[in-house]
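Session log. Operator J.P. requested a structure for one protein chain; no other inputs attached. Running the standard single-chain path with token output.
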Amino acid sequence: MTRVKRGTTSLKRRRNVLKQVKGYRFGRKSKEKMAKEAIAHAGVHAFQHRRKKKGVFRRLWQIKINAASRTNGISYSKLIDKLKKGGIALDRKILANLAENKPDVFSSLIKKVK
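Structure written below.
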């Protein structure tokens, strides 16, 4: 049976791990065991924060809509209520975009709802 040397495989695995932790601090960037642990934790946080990002954006849209609607004399909650009752199906992302970039269209929408 022929001899199998495994140096290249383990070296490649080590290089891959250390490439992923480039920019980390202290031993996490150079020690394989610490690097693997850091990658595992980073993956968990990345997964959670991808989910959390949706809520962060929704809160940002609410703030933008509220600021623009108050300049037109109506609060955020009343505006959303009247939009639902009026059958206008615009989501918060679109409303925030209108409020920020096209305030004249947004104010005309509010007048239509009132």
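Operator note: The chain has a mean pLDDT of 95.
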